[in-house]
Structure formats: structure tokens, C-alpha cells
Design a protein that fits this description.
- There is one protein chain.
- The chain has about 375 residues and is mainly beta.
- It has three domains: about 10-125, Immunoglobulin-like; about 140-225 and about 340-355, no CATH class; about 235-335, Immunoglobulin-like.
- About 0% of the residues lie in helices and about 50% in strands.
């Protein structure tokens, strides 16, 4: 009882690989170790194979994930320990393990002769690519009131055993914390992807959706590399970049726009809190701008008092003292970057379902 399922996948190396190349033979998830720095469970992948340190080389582990336009994203793992036949690597919270292809690269320093002198050169040898199967038998239950604290109510996701071979069906195996009590997550519903790699959890209290890795049992950071899209801007008139519409911003961003009206005297770009508590000027000028940068928005700035929804309000005045305003773009300011998917203003996500292809979440 109270044990996580043991995921173990045997790998057949491709024929014809060089004898000294590293080769992955099997992968196994290990959730039994504790991280000494955080005191939390260390999500580790144990890689069994051969030739990981041949010739005194040092191994590196990369997780290859499908990216936009068919270009893979490579994320490095932090190796905890290794030998010639076994590597323990921590799985980052930016990696969905069931979707990742795992590669071990060995770096060797070898002497080479150049211009009559012997120097050292680094050679790299890659292993075969390996994947671990997502065939777990967990059941997931949202816990909106997992624990009461001085900061508020903590939410969590309960993991129940569905495998009679490791314990009683229904045994509580783990509780996965979701966000913080201060964010008032109130998890409500759970949906699994058809390939059993991810669980999507609606957070009714914070208007977000959390994503959980069903192999490593950790909350994924799905927003770490997101950048706002550049929208199409007119070359005349008054407009703020529509690509920022309802974007969640936690990093500095250049706000683009167009200011091109007849008889322009001056223009100003303000960030205005929805609750009216603050107005921050991001940029101003007297010259026309065509699809250019109007100002810089830094969510960490002390001038921005709190996280929440804000309007980007662009105003321009002409020689006839006529003021034009574009306030069509709203953004969400994250003082502390959230790993979750944010829903539009006013949303309280309740139920959720995943389409049969696993490409869309329906709320």
C-alpha cells in the first residue's frame, strides 16, 4: 500500500551502432528519493544501459519534446549520479515525461595532432533515443480544500491506486500540491489525455487550468517559454498590438502599436488596472509610430502595485484638441510567474474534457 506504480520500459538499441557509443537499454521512474535541498520528492528517471562513461567520458541527458513547426525542444536534465551502466537524472517540471524522447550524450576529451602539436578536442557520442510508456493505473481526484492554512485554502490532486498488484485499489498514494493557498486555486475537475501522459485540472478559484505529469506526479510549468504573439498592426490610425490581447505577462515585454493620425500633437500609452487602483504611463511622444515600440512593460516594476487584469490604453490628441483612444487590449500581470494556463477575465472553469485526439481541452 501507499506505493507509486513502477514504470519500467525495456529499450532495444538500433542495430549497427558503434560499439563504444552509449546505449539505453531500459528506463524506470523512481519517486522514492528525497531532494536534500527542498525536502520534497525527487522525480528521477533511472536510465540503464552501456558505455555511458567509456574512455573517461562524462554523460549528459537531454529530453527531446515535440515543438512548433516540427522542431524539437531539447531540455537538459540534472544528473544526480551516474556510472558506466546507470544514470539517475531529475526530470524537470517543464518536461512531460510520457511525450519525451530521452538521449544520453557522452563527452570525451581526446588528443589530436594539429600543426605539429598535440591538443585536446571534445568528441560527442549520442545514444539511441528512448521513450517510457505511460501505462499507469492511477485515479486522480481534485481536492479543493486539501488543507487550511493562515494564507488561505490549499488545493491538491489526490492520486489513488488502481493497480491490485501493488496494493489495495483506492489506496491514497500521493497528494500533488497545486499552486499556493494565496492563489486560492480550488481545483474542481480532472481530465486525462487519451495517451495518459497528462492530467488537466480546472482551478475554479484562480481562473486557471493546471497540468500534471501522470508519470512523475508533479505539476508541470507549461508557461515557462511562452512569449506573446506579435499581432498584425495597421500602418495608420491608432492601435495597440492585438497579439497581447488577454496575454499573461510575467517577463518584460516591448508593447508595439501604431500612432498615425492627421495633425498629431502627442500620444501616451498607459497601463490601467481594471479596479481603478493604478495608472502607469509606459510611453509617450509627439511623433508618429508605424507598427513600432510604444513602451516597455515590466511586470516586476514597483510601479505596478499588484497582479491582476490591466488595460493598455493608448490615447492621441490632434491639433483640434480631439482625443482618440484605443483601450481594446487587456493583459494579465503575473507578479510571480504562474505555471498554469490562465483563462479569460471572469472565467471560473468548472468541468473539463479532452477530445479523443488529445489536442484540445474543452471547458
Amino acid at each position: 500500500a501507499n506505493q507509486t506504480n513502477n514504470y519500467f520500459t525495456n529499450i532495444t538499441p538500433p542495430p549497427g551502432a558503434a560499439a563504444t557509443d552509449p546505449a539505453i537499454l531500459s528506463l524506470q521512474v523512481d519517486l522514492s528519493q528525497m531532494d536534500p535541498d527542498t525536502g520534497e520528492v525527487s522525480r528521477e528517471l533511472v536510465i540503464h544501459g552501456t558505455n555511458f562513461t567509456d574512455g573517461g567520458g562524462e554523460p549528459f541527458v537531454n529530453f527531446l519534446l515535440p515543438g512548433p513547426d516540427g522542431i524539437d525542444k531539447s531540455i537538459a536534465g540534472n544528473i544526480v549520479q551516474y556510472s558506466n551502466n546507470e544514470i539517475h537524472v531529475q526530470v524537470p517540471n517543464t518536461v512531460t515525461l510520457g511525450l519525451a524522447r530521452v538521449v544520453v550524450t557522452r563527452a570525451n576529451t581526446v588528443p589530436v595532432q594539429k600543426n605539429g602539436k598535440v591538443t585536446n578536442s571534445i568528441t560527442l557520442a549520442d545514444s539511441n533515443e528512448a521513450r517510457i510508456k505511460s501505462e499507469g493505473t492511477y485515479a486522480f481526484v481534485a481536492l479543493p480544500e486539501a488543507r487550511y492554512t493562515a494564507d488561505g485554502v490549499e488545493g491538491a490532486l489526490a492520486v489513488l491506486n488502481g493497480n491490485p498488484n501493488i496494493g489495495v485499489i483506492g489506496d491514497l498514494i500521493a497528494k500533488i500540491p497545486i499552486d499556493t493557498a494565496a492563489e486560492n486555486p480550488l481545483p474542481r475537475d480532472v481530465a486525462l489525455t487519451p495517451d495518459n501522459t497528462r492530467a488537466y485540472v480546472t482551478l475554479r478559484g484562480s481562473s486557471r487550468v493546471a497540468v500534471i505529469d501522470t508519470l512523475t506526479l508533479q505539476q508541470l510549468n507549461v508557461t515557462y517559454d511562452q512569449v506573446p504573439l506579435n499581432g498584425s498592426l495597421p500602418t495608420t490610425g491608432l492601435a495597440v498590438d492585438p497579439g497581447l490581447y488577454y496575454a499573461s505577462l510575467s517577463k518584460p515585454v516591448a508593447v508595439r502599436g501604431t500612432v498615425d493620425i492627421p495633425g498629431l500633437v502627442s500620444w501616451k500609452l498607459d497601463l490601467v488596472a481594471f479596479d481603478g487602483s493604478a495608472t502607469i504611463t509606459l510611453g509617450q511622444g509627439t511623433s508618429k509610430i508605424n507598427a513600432g515600440v510604444l513602451g516597455q512593460l515590466d511586470p516586476a516594476s514597483a510601479a505596478i502595485p499588484h497582479a491582476g487584469f490591466y488595460r493598455l490604453e493608448l490615447t492621441a490628441e490632434d491639433v483640434g484638441h480631439v482625443t482618440r483612444i484605443d483601450s481594446s487590449v487587456a493583459v494579465y500581470i503575473e507578479k510571480n510567474a504562474s505555471p498554469d494556463i490562465r483563462m479569460p477575465f471572469g472565467a471560473q472553469p468548472y468541468g473539463i474534457a479532452i477530445d479523443p485526439a488529445g489536442k484540445f481541452a474543452l471547458l
